[in-house]
């Protein structure tokens, strides 16, 4: 039976959806496999009043992508989940279809919601029943219900919920209470407080044998539909099914208020910034610089892979990262950055998350004439503008040379600092920054090598995502590099 069997693997991923790509299929020793049909229902039909925003929170966008797409991806990437039913309000149906198309979601069926969460969920479950046109999604053995506004759910935890639901009929995620729950009198006085250690917060996902939860919804009252907040309660009350409760990770929290949207964005940015691939090309100086960066970025707890030699598609395919640093030594190798942009574009790597590509260019201004420099900078600027359309953020860091050997470590530190900030922030505003102000009239045309000593300040460099640093050529091996004109002596 195709795609019925699956097993769980994959790294623990705090954002749940950050591993991207196709679902996992490798067996994970010791883990129970899923050999029955499983589907998910994601209620997304609410208006998100508590955020105070005009846009329902599930459609709020960060890193160029709506929240709902992150949640869908967290389910789609799980090979053993067959179908993902997303329930939306009628006015958002077209928007939802556009999102599915734009982010290439493949397992999703969209259905219309109702005025309350329970009514929306029931509509979602009905998608597995025969439709008026005679079609139906394959009925799952276990259905996972998960709020569309909880984007961080991992495969491991989905497996636990699914297996427990299969064995017990129902299961749900819980978390320890953060605050004590108290009961108030109608006059607003304390009536009594609950013993916190005895109670838990009910979170999502929850899993059910499909027949049980469907039957519970068929039986439940209008009051349940209008005021109920707990699916596990319906299974217990109407079908006598006691849910197995499983403690989940803190990342299962629900985006409810505006600040939760900021928190979700930070988590995603943080998760994207743990790894970087430094592409050094084949020249010895670049490789040396790459290893210097590996050390300095590594000291910031980033995992850095260095790729040297001619650039193939392996840079993207092997590293599995969303961050690249390309080191170039002269203007002719600037074509290499275009090649890397093309590889990332072709791989469709940037559909899900913006890819950061940082060009660290060593000695650009000193090694060629002014006209050539301007041409190269112009080319980079246009490439950055074009790359932006493909969700690729191309930044530049420019390094120059000096006689002072002691500057090198500081330079590496500065480059690492800027690169780490660019990777972490993923801010498109810093992108087309290949402009350099000469301090007097802000025109790049006045930038000549003889002005170099006056433009070493890294503060301004950060502002423009452009660092000018001065390193001793002999540090960069085999003596082939020359100090810039005007700096000798
Ligand atoms: N009629 C509704 C109401 C809610 N939901 C969904 O149920 C989940 C959890 O509900 P909640 O956080 O309460 O979302 P909202 O109802 O949108 O928020 P608010 O209560 O602040 O308006 C959300 O994914 C929401 O879109 C739904 O599908 N249909
Ligand atoms: O945690 C949950 C289930 O137990 C739900 O996410 C929660 O009940 C949704 O409720 P509300 O719509 O009031 O935010």
TrEMBL record:
Gene3D superfamilies recorded: Spore Coat Polysaccharide Biosynthesis Protein SpsA, Chain A
Biological process (GO), any one: protein O-linked glycosylation via mannose
Main location (coarse class): cytoplasm
Subcellular compartments: Cytoplasm, Cytosol
Domain D-ribitol-5-phosphate cytidylyltransferase C-terminal: 275-415
SUPFAM superfamilies: Nucleotide-diphospho-sugar transferases
Pathway given in the UniProt record: Protein modification; protein glycosylation
EC number(s) stated in the UniProt entry for this protein: 2.7.7.40
Keywords of the record: Cytoplasm, Nucleotidyltransferase, Transferase
InterPro entries: IspD/TarI (IPR034683), ISPD_C (IPR040635), ISPD_synthase_CS (IPR018294), Nucleotide-diphossugar_trans (IPR029044)
Pfam families in the cross-refs: IspD, ISPD_C
CDD domains reported in the protein's UniProt record: CDP-ME_synthetase
Catalytically driven reaction(s): D-ribitol 5-phosphate + CTP + H(+) = CDP-L-ribitol + diphosphate; D-ribose 5-phosphate + CTP + H(+) = CDP-D-ribose + diphosphate; D-ribulose 5-phosphate + CTP + H(+) = CDP-D-ribulose + diphosphate
GO molecular function, one term: D-ribitol-5-phosphate cytidylyltransferase activity
Residue span of region Disordered: 1-31
Gene Ontology cellular-component annotations: cytosol
Residue stretches spanning the membrane: none
Protein purpose: Cytidylyltransferase required for protein O-linked mannosylation. Catalyzes the formation of CDP-ribitol nucleotide sugar from D-ribitol 5-phosphate. CDP-ribitol is a substrate of FKTN during the biosynthesis of the phosphorylated O-mannosyl trisaccharide (N-acetylgalactosamine-beta-3-N-acetylglucosamine-beta-4-(phosphate-6-)mannose), a carbohydrate structure present in alpha-dystroglycan (DAG1), which is required for binding laminin G-like domain-containing extracellular proteins with high affinity.
Record text on subunit structure and interactions: Homodimer.
Family to which the UniProt record says this protein belongs: Belongs to the IspD/TarI cytidylyltransferase family. IspD subfamily.
UniProt-recorded name of the protein: D-ribitol-5-phosphate cytidylyltransferase
Biological source species: Scleropages formosus (Asian bonytongue)
Gene: CRPPA
């Amino acid at each position: 039976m195709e795609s019925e069997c699956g097993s769980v693997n994959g790294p623990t991923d705090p954002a749940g959806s950050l591993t991207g790509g196709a679902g996992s299929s490798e067996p994970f020793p010791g883990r129970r496999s899923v050999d029955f049909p499983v589907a998910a229902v994601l209620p997304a039909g609410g208006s998100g009043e508590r955020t105070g925003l005009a846009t329902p929170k599930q459609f709020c966008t960060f890193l160029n992508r709506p929240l709902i797409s992150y949640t869908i991806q967290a389910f789609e990437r799980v090979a053993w989940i067959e179908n993902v039913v997303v329930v939306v309000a009628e006015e958002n149906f077209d928007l939802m279809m556009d999102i599915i198309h734009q982010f290439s979601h493949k397992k999703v069926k969209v259905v219309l919601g109702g005025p309350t969460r329970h009514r929306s969920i029931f509509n979602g479950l009905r998608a597995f029943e025969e439709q008026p046109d005679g079609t139906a999604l394959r009925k799952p053995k276990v259905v996972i219900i998960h709020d569309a506004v909880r984007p961080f759910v991992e495969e491991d935890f989905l497996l636990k919920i699914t297996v427990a639901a299969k064995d017990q009929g129902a299961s749900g995620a819980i978390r320890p209470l953060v605050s004590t729950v108290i009961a108030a009198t109608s006059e607003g006085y304390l009536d009594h407080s609950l013993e916190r250690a005895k109670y838990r917060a009910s979170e999502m996902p929850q899993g059910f044998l499909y027949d049980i939860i469907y039957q519970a919804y068929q039986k439940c009252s209008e009051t349940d539909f209008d005021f109920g907040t707990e699916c596990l309660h319906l299974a217990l009350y109407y079908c006598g099914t006691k849910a197995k409760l499983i403690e989940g990770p803190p990342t299962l929290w629900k985006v409810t208020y505006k600040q939760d949207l900021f928190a979700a964005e930070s988590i995603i940015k943080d998760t994207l910034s743990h790894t970087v691939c430094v592409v050094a090309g084949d020249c010895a100086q670049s490789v040396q610089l790459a290893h210097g960066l590996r050390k300095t970025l590594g000291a910031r707890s980033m995992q850095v892979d260095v790729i040297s030699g001619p650039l193939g598609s392996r840079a993207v395919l092997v590293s599995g990262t969303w961050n690249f640093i390309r080191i170039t030594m002269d203007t002719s190798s600037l074509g290499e950055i275009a090649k890397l942009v093309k590889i990332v574009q072709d791989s469709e790597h940037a559909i899900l998350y913006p890819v950061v590509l940082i060009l660290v260019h060593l000695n650009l201004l000193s090694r060629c004439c002014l006209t050539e420099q301007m041409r190269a900078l112009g080319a980079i600027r246009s490439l950055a503008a074009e790359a932006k359309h493909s969700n690729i953020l191309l930044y530049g860091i420019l390094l120059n040379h000096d006689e002072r050997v002691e500057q090198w470590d500081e330079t590496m530190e500065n480059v690492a600092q800027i690169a780490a900030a660019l990777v972490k922030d993923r801010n498109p505003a810093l992108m087309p920054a290949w402009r350099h102000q000469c301090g007097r009239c802000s025109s790049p045309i006045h930038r000549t090598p003889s002005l170099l000593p006056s433009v070493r300040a890294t503060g301004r460099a950060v502002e423009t995502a452009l660092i000018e640093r001065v390193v001793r050529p002999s540090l960069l091996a085999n003596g082939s590099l020359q100090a810039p004109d005007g700096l000798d002596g």
